Write the structure tokens for this entry.
Amino acid sequence: MPPKGTTSALKPMRLPPLPKLRVRRPNQTEANPCLAIMSSVLTCWASSGYTTAGCQALETQLRTCMDTPRPKSQKKNTINYHLSRMYPKIVGPRKRK
């Protein structure tokens, strides 16, 4: 039970005044999957003195990774569009100066 003299109704939660609601960098690109294999090839070359006999398996892995096709285009993330569209409904009415 609430203490005497107070109401049991909950106060609505208010957001702090923000000029706009945005997500920073929503279209993050993922790291290159061939980067780890290339690092392994370079390490192998550095340790074996650039001979192809010891690093042949890593070189073929790198070639197959580099030859695989990449997706051409990514769809643009629409989160910021929807946030800017819904922001007035979230914040509520504002007083005019």
About this structure: The chain has a mean pLDDT of 77. The longest helix spans residues 35-48. The chain has three helices and no strands. The CA atoms of residues 58 and 66 lie 12 Å apart.
